[in-house]
Design a protein that fits this description.
The structure holds two protein chains of two kinds. Chain A is α/β, with parallel strands linked by helices. Chain A is built from ten helices and ten strands. In chain A, helix 7 links the parallel strand 7 and strand 8. The radius of gyration of chain A is 18 Å and the shape is globular. Chain B has two domains: 42 residues; 232 residues, MetI-like (MetI-like fold, Orthogonal Bundle), CATH 1.10.3720.10. The two termini of chain B are 45 Å apart. At the A-B interface, helix 2, strand 6, helix 3 and helix 6 of A face helix 7 and helix 8 of B.
């Protein structure tokens, strides 16, 4: 896999749900091949921000979006852009794993299939490869035909990660991807992210500060729909410039 | 102290009402099944199942009701198939494509109204349509009228099933770059398959038991159904005609016919339950 210059540029992003403005003038550059953590109290617009990047926001009927998001030179929010292509470039891991109603094999093969890869040796190789990447192959190789929903929660989440990777995205998005998992499964997902950042740009939303501290290279602090502060993780955590950031990091509100 | 006693009485009365209602309904059901079994079973025999009515059947002579068994199966299977082929796309459109709008709500409401319309109205409508087209009472006419009866049931039942598919599931399929059609067909329908089977059964059950819609449209005949363009008999009408005779032996055959109809519905129910279990193997809970 080649080294992409895939960073995400966000300019003046505004999102309204009806009369409620959820994101207000967000502008930020998300660096390539690093893990960016978006932190902030619940209801501050973190998930909405993520959904704008891969246009899942389209599925919310009453949402109105303005502004600009550029990924690799592609204008994501351009109404003329092919939305399936945009989404294919970005894998998303949601809060709770939702495997597709198919076998383990079919889950990973689903993406490559809809994008044109036919059955056969190549598909088998792809499935095995991505199951290995997420460390699931040894656990499931003798029951690839089994239902994905029979796996444990942690395994399901890794399966969802493999499924997302199999469409060969450039960006990985995680919406509190470990919040439904036990600590050990959560750690495995975190480790996956750390390995994957060499080849992907990773953006995760998290409300767990410790997780952000462990994982992030770059941090964006969102509060009430606005960016309060963003910068390299170490700098932001050790020397926050804004009082609100300092208060949040010190756990004065959450 | 006083209040807690009051609560206990309230609890007991409410519980009594619920159990009473349950017993009443179950009792009626058992009574119906019992009557059909008791009066019908002695008249069930092989001749009845493999022969069409012979001359003088309705006065007690030899023959069977194969004409009605086959006719009912053809009518109900045909109508269920037609209703499914139209109903699934409608439900998918309402649930996956259309989003929320006044028009969608209007469509839903009209489907609910159509559900409630008595089937004799569909029969009359089908009949006038056939007169207009110059068609005679036929299997095809019956299938069309019956599929109109079944369509709203099919649509709304499938839609309720599709509504249960978690939003996050469709979302995760979209994330992989799937188009709406791929999401609808490969994810939503697959997840809903067990429920869709039940919806088909529901519509089939309504269809095979319906007499009023096929009365004018399919007509009735003692011959076995051989062509879409010729009249076809049906079990509910066979029951009606046999019960209407003054001969006890023929009336008993009516109960036997009812037993056959019940058995068909039962067999289809069990089969669909089995199918539904198999189909839910991959379903995400």
């Amino acid at each position: 896999m080649t080294q992409h210059q895939a960073h995400i540029c966000v300019r003046e992003l505004n999102v309204c749900y009806g009369a409620l403005q959820v994101l207000k003038g967000i502008s930020v550059d998300i660096p390539a091949n690093q893990i960016t953590a978006i932190i902030g109290p619940s209801g501050c617009g973190k998930t909405t921000f993520l959904k704008c990047i891969n246009r899942l926001i389209d599925l919310v009927d009453e949402a109105r979006v303005s502004g600009e998001i550029t990924v690799n030179g592609i204008q994501v929010l351009d109404p003329l852009v092919d939305v399936t292509e945009v989404r294919q470039k970005m894998g998303l891991l949601s809060q709770r794993p939702y495997p597709l109603p198919m076998s383990i094999y079919e889950n990973v093969a689903f993406g490559p299939r809809i994008h044109g890869l036919r059955d056969g040796w190549n598909l088998d190789q792809t499935v095995e490869h991505y199951l290995r990447v997420v460390g699931l192959w040894d656990e499931v190789q003798d029951r690839l035909d089994g239902a994905a929903s029979k796996l444990s929660m942690g395994q399901q989440q890794r399966l969802c990660l493999a499924r997302g990777l199999a469409v060969e995205p450039e960006v990985l998005l995680g919406d509190e991807p470990t919040s439904a998992l036990d600590p050990i499964s959560a750690l495995r997902i975190e480790r996956c992210f750390q390995e994957l950042k060499q080849n992907y740009t990773v953006v995760i939303v998290t409300h767990i500060l410790r997780q952000a501290q462990r994982l992030a290279d770059y941090v964006v602090f969102l509060y009430m729909g606005e960016i309060v502060e963003h910068g390299p993780a170490r700098e932001l955590f050790e020397h926050p410039k804004e009082p609100r950031t300092r208060a949040y990091i010190n756990g004065e509100f959450s | 102290m006083r209040r807690s006693l009051l609560w206990k009485i309230e609890e007991a009365v409410m519980k009594g009402l619920m159990i009473g209602a349950l017993v009443l309904v179950l009792g009626c059901l058992l009574l119906i099944l019992g009557t059909v079994l008791w009066r019908g079973l002695p008249a069930v025999n092989l001749t009845m199942l493999i022969q069409a009515p012979q001359g003088g059947f309705y006065t007690g002579a030899e023959g069977g009701i194969l004409n009605a068994i086959l006719g009912s199966l053809y009518l109900a299977v045909g109508a269920t198939l037609a209703a499914f082929l139209l109903g699934l796309p409608i439900a998918l459109h309402l649930q996956v494509y259309a989003g929320r709008s006044r028009l969608v709500e209007a469509v839903r409401l009209s489907l609910d109204v159509l559900w409630g319309i008595p089937s004799i109205v569909y029969g009359a409508f089908g009949f006038s349509l056939m007169l207009f087209l110059g068609m005679r009472a036929s299997l095809l006419g019956g299938i069309i009228a019956l599929s109109l009866v079944e369509l709203p049931i099919m649509c709304r039942a499938i839609e309720e099933v599709l509504k249960m598919v978690p939003f996050e599931l469709t979302e995760s399929a979209y994330t992989l770059g799937a188009t709406r059609w791929e999401v609808a067909w490969k994810v939503v329908v697959r997840q809903g398959l067990p429920g869709i089977t039940s919806a088909i059964l529901l519509a089939f059950g309504r269809g095979i038991g319906d007499a009023a819609s096929v009365l004018f449209t399919a007509g009735y005949t003692d011959n076995l159904p051989t062509s879409l363009l010729r009249p076809a008999a049906s079990l509910p009408l066979a029951i009606f005609f046999q019960l209407g005779t003054p001969f006890p032996a023929v009336q008993q055959r009516a109960y036997a016919s009812a037993l056959v109809l019940t058995a068909i519905v039962l067999v289809i129910s069990v089969l669909s339950r089995l199918a539904s279990e198999r189909l839910s193997r991959y379903v995400v809970k």
